[in-house]
Amino acid sequence: MFRGALWLLAGRGCVGRGLSTRSGGSTPDWTEKVSEIKKKIQSALPGGAWDPLYDTSHLPPEHSDVVIVGGGVLGLSVAYWLKRLEKPRGAIRVLVVDRDHTYSRASTGLSVGGIRQQFSLPENIQLSLFSVDFLRNINEYLAVVDDPPLDVQFNPSGYLLLASEKGAAIMENNVKVQRPDMAALPSVITMVSQEQESATDRSPSLTRDIRQEGAKVCLMSPEQLQNKFPWINTDGVALASYGLEGEGWFDPWCLLQGLRRKIQSLGVFFCQGEVTRFSTSSSRMQTSGGKEMTLKRIHEVHVKMDHSLEYQPVECALVINAAGAWSGQVAELAGIGKGPPGTLEGTKLPVEPRKRYVYFWHCPEGPGLETPFMADTSGAYFRREGLGHNYLGGCSPTEEEEPDPGNLEVDHDFFQDKVWPHLAHRVPAFQSLKVRSAWAGYYDYNTFDQNGVVGPHPLVVNMYFATGFSGHGLQQAPAVGRAVAEMVLKGQFQTIDLSSLLFSRFYLGEKVEERNII
Amino acid sequence: MAAPRASLHLVAPKWNLGTSGIRGLSSAVTPEGNQRKGRMLLQFLTDRFYDVEAIRQYLFQKQVSKVHKENRSSTGIKKQYGPYIAGAYFVLKQGGAVKFQGEEWIRSKHGYSPLQLLSFQAVPIEAVDASDCAINYEGLDNLLALKELQSLLLQRCPHVDDWCLSRLHQLANSLQELSLAGCPRISERGLACLHHLQNLRRLDISDLPAVSNPGLTQILVEEMLPRCEVLGAEWAQGLKSGPEQQSQDTASPIPA
């Protein structure tokens, strides 16, 4: 080995000298040559990045079992669970490819960081429940020897969702789904309206009943709401649902870095590059009904380096599409959606980027430490940030007002016209506030039904999706990662059944919608 | 987030030194020279040998599962003897103290007989002192079943954190005194969810190392719980000294 190194060194030495004279250096610098030789010896020793022609340490490996396109919280979560659930240990080589290692436009870092269980779909509720458990025990899941423990800065202040007359029935049904023990109790709305009719004694008997169940979500009438949070203007509110435990907000960047650190220690490869092409092969198969289908298989992923034409074809067995707002483009590269419309081949992945603004303001008279994450009947939301009477918030625009997702520029007029009036109506103290800063981020918006897509594609058999969560991806990421890893390793969902979130629902037209209360 | 992206920072002292066990965390905060050298050697070995890394991970997992085992809920006892006996048994097993309504304090240090406990089957528990106990989120189940609990002391508990505080709303009807002094993992975010405890009259939040701004937090908690007496940091703590004090220092002549 040593003789070989010496021979290579001698051969290299000539080339090195020749190159240095050609590049115009007059007399070869002795110290420079020594350091060059040292570097070459080091790269020739085992463990170094050895390549006879040029340095390839920035390129991904040539073979990988699983390639995860997208290094945000969903992609890293899938990588973590793949490594955790694989048998035997170290069996699967995983590569995470992301085109921006600064995460400047990634939805994860720009997110407001809320987590709630108040959904109407049972799958969403279970996903959030597991994710909250994961966050609570994050230091058992993501512990790395010799590294400091993680602090996700979780604020357990809960979510407060307000409903108008129209949405009150839907909200009550949602809470019954979230808390099956409440299904036996009489309808809250009739009780609330009876209380309003009596108008004498506002006894908190309702809340006491709910508390006896050991509740985590409670329904509140406008009077109870006014008692609990005197700074709210309950005009137009018929019902409110307040999450007592397991809801709040946290620091998404910390979760991302914790996942990254842990999976690096588990041996996952990272690469900064853009996926430009999938090399696929097709085979014609016949269904049991006699219909002919073309099944595709991805063999190679071409990863292109930044600011360069250099690319590396990575041979892979599986591809996981966790590209967030750009998942639709990645799916098109694999040929998903290229076919006559109305057929399975022609069904695109309906995930596209949608820009959302977040504003940060200061209001010295604003609500205090007990402020939950409040979502108004109009769709405007806000939450407390820190101890200095600062708040974060925004509003989802209607379909007609959707801003252009081409860039992440902030429209300040949107706050003036669409967000502030609703906030000031709901919280009178917000009539005088001062916007300190604002930013914009993307939702990986599922235009079909605004819920995530999980699992394999029926035709491109080795592409799995973990995307399209339209604003609640961060809060469900740990659970979704586990579900996708189970699908990959065992072929079916084991802990949480997400069969209703598979890709095939886009072709079959089965919408799986959240019943919002707005 | 508008706040700058903070790198991972230490809230509790490093865990993998756990030589002195869970209760002796204070020694890990200020290491001596020899301990530091030992730690650096251990880190060196861990970086280079998979076996050492695996052994250390296993030891860490054992530590964690030890805490979980101590906080296992004893559903059998609960079913047979009721929530009060189960709660008392749990607290005394951990090394704390309980006070039944109309009785004296029963402390595990001073010894107790289980038969004595059984005689209190229908008597509700009034006060629990779980200071210095390894009680955590799961273990809190036993305490939350005590619906007549008036006083809860959780001083210097190493595993009580913000998540545990978010569960205390279940005791809102009865709890009048709560002490969280010296708990290393409680921050102002957990204190924010104490607003459910509207019957609280005494709250002790002194000496919380993880609270970023003790004086300001004290003021905000007092605003949040107007009928409660809050013991904690002085409001002037954390404020910089005023200009009068500074000029005084410069004016005083240095004796020759």
TrEMBL record, chain A:
Keywords: Electron transport, FAD, Flavoprotein, Membrane, Mitochondrion, Mitochondrion inner membrane, Oxidoreductase, Respiratory chain, Transmembrane, Transmembrane helix, Transport. This is FAD-dependent oxidoreductase domain-containing protein 1. The lineage of its organism: Eukaryota, Metazoa, Chordata, Craniata, Vertebrata. It is a single-pass membrane protein. PANTHER family: FAD-DEPENDENT OXIDOREDUCTASE DOMAIN-CONTAINING PROTEIN 1, SARCOSINE DEHYDROGENASE-RELATED. It holds the Pfam family DAO. It is found in: Mitochondrion inner membrane. Required for the assembly of the mitochondrial membrane respiratory chain NADH dehydrogenase (Complex I). Involved in mid-late stages of complex I assembly. Associates with components of the mitochondrial respiratory chain complex I. GO terms for biological process: mitochondrial respiratory chain complex I assembly. GO terms for molecular function: oxidoreductase activity. One of its GO terms (cellular component) is mitochondrial inner membrane. Its cofactor is FAD. Residues 65-487 form the FAD dependent oxidoreductase domain. InterPro entries: FAD-dep_OxRdtase, FAD/NAD-bd_sf.
TrEMBL record, chain B:
Belongs to the ATP synthase subunit s family. This is Distal membrane-arm assembly complex protein 2. Interacts with incompletely assembled mitochondrial NADH:ubiquinone oxidoreductase complex (complex I). The lineage of its organism: Eukaryota, Metazoa, Chordata, Craniata, Vertebrata. Required for the assembly of the mitochondrial NADH:ubiquinone oxidoreductase complex (complex I). Involved in the assembly of the distal region of complex I. It comes from Myotis myotis (Greater mouse-eared bat).
